Amino acid sequence: MLINNPTKKVDYAVRDLSNILKFREKKFITDLDVFNKRVLVRVDYNVPLDKNGIITDTRRIANTLPTLNYLLKQNCRIILISHLGRPNGKIVESLRMDPIHKKLKEFFPETNVYKVEDCIGKEVVSKVSKLKNKEILLLENPRFHKEEKENDPEFAAKLAKLADVYVDDAFATAHRKHASTYGVCSFFKDKGYGFLVEKELKFLSSSIEKPQRPFTVILGGKKVKDKLGVIKNLIGLADNILIGGGMAYTFLLAKGYQIGKSVKDLSKLKEIRDYLRDETHGTRIFIPKDVLVCDEIENPKKIKIVPVTEIGENDIGVDIGPETIKIFNRILAESKQVVWNGPMGVFEFEKFASGTNAVAEYLAEIDAMTIIGGGDSVAAVNKCGLADKMTHVSTGGGASLEFLEGKVLPGVDALDD
Ligand code: AMP
Question: pLDDT at residue 247 above 50?
Fold first, then answer.
């Protein structure tokens, strides 16, 4: 349902594009003198592991191959650093980097790929000193040290001592101000971003700077706060914003509908009302016309489709309904650029995944630039086997969201000269 009818457009030519401009100021890996050097590469190998410690999705590793291959051709000694999971400053055996080491050896059968048992200390310094050109050394999980997340300068300095040049290719961690993503940079004169970061930020930047029109943003998921930042930044720029998922219920509430026991964020009601009342921004905002409701998410006994005017006091809204899917598809059919972040329902349960699957399937069909902004939307696209049909599937949920919010990513910001 269209819930506002903007009448006139304001001039958005003066938008704050400082996050894009900051990115452009930084050095790309090919601008750096890396030949024969020791290069510390921050990657994001926070891969999913099954209970036997087997990596179930290796894409995060595969995505860094362009950077690693480039550095190998440049005769570099590569020192890789990545976190894995949340060990909270302690050694957690199941979060050691060994499965990743094994996978790297498979990706580079002709190259010596070593691993050390820590990321700082004597053993590491000694191993780095013995590393030869065209060899790779994987450091142990830096989050075994609490200093990593605290962005401790002494810890960062120890990491920096291991190399001559720093390359950031950890897009999914670029929104974190940690020692290995942020603090370490101040100790390097020569630093820049790798091929993965460049690909991610090129797509996101061009989608904001020169959108192909009509430009539609689809937002879903549960956390209203995160997504409101995106609305704030893209309102007036996007032609349409489609709202689904748990966040839609706070919008429905703001419009005066009963939402039963659905998720809501009352602290954001006023801000939402302000967006809906403002008729000058020129963006059409669509919220669900019908929804799927149930009595209980885990073991539902009752599931039904209802118009949003008929959500009962005990109903929990868990997906968008078929009428809403039709309306969203109509808007998508006429779009030339779509950015999607957040599922349309509790898609982890197949019964509540129809709306999310329908969006993924429709995006795969349309003739438009389609950018999937990380996290659960990417999981949904992958589950449907449609990742290859999208223009760009981001590796970073939080990072892409923050970039779309207009924020400067600390990991990129720190690459200053
Ligand atoms: P977010 O991190 O904000 O993008 O939220 C993602 C989560 O939102 C997923 O785990 C979904 O299960 C959840 N979600 C989507 N729709 C709903 C809903 N109607 N009610 C509760 N949770 C939802």
Answer: yes
Neighbours of 238 (CB within 10 A): 28
pTM, rounded to two decimals = 0.91
Is the distance from CB of 394 to CB of 371 less than 8 angstroms? yes
Q: How many angstroms separate the alpha carbon of residue 157 from the centre of ligand 1?
A: 40
Decide if 309 is inside a domain. yes
Residue 221 CA, ligand 1 centroid: distance in Å:
4
More confident residue, 162 or 22: 162
Measured by CA distance, the residue closest to atom 12 of ligand 1 is 346
First to last CA, the chain: 49
Q: Which residues line ligand 1 (CB under 6 A)?
A: 221-223, 226, 245-246, 263, 317-318, 342-343, 345-346, 348, 375-376
Co-location of 41 and 159 in the same domain: yes
Q: Which pair of tokens denotes residue 145?
A: 């040290």
CB 39 within 8 A of CB 79: yes
Phi, psi of 299 (to 5 degrees): -130, 70
Residues 269 and 399 in one domain: yes
H or E stretch covering 158: helix 153-160
Give the CATH number of the domain where residue 333 resides. Answer: 3.40.50.1260
Q: Is the pLDDT of residue 2 over 90?
A: no
Q: Strand, coil or helix: what is 163?
A: coil
Return the half-sphere exposure (C-beta side, CA atoms, 13 A cut-off) of residue 238.
26
How many domains does one find in the chain?
2
Could you tell me which residue, 21 or 292, shows the higher pLDDT?
292
- What is the pLDDT averaged over residues 366-381? 91
Instruction: Please determine, for residue 12, whether its predicted confidence score (pLDDT) is greater than 70.
Output: no
- Classify residue 230: in a domain, yes or no: yes
Residues carrying an active site annotation: 60, 223, 375, 398
The protein residue with its alpha carbon nearest to ligand 1, atom 5, reads: 221
- Percent of the chain at pLDDT exceeding 70: 97
Does a structural domain hold residue 17? no
Q: Are residues 181 and 208 in the same domain?
A: no
User: How remote is the CA of residue 345 from the centroid of ligand 1, in Å?
Assistant: 6
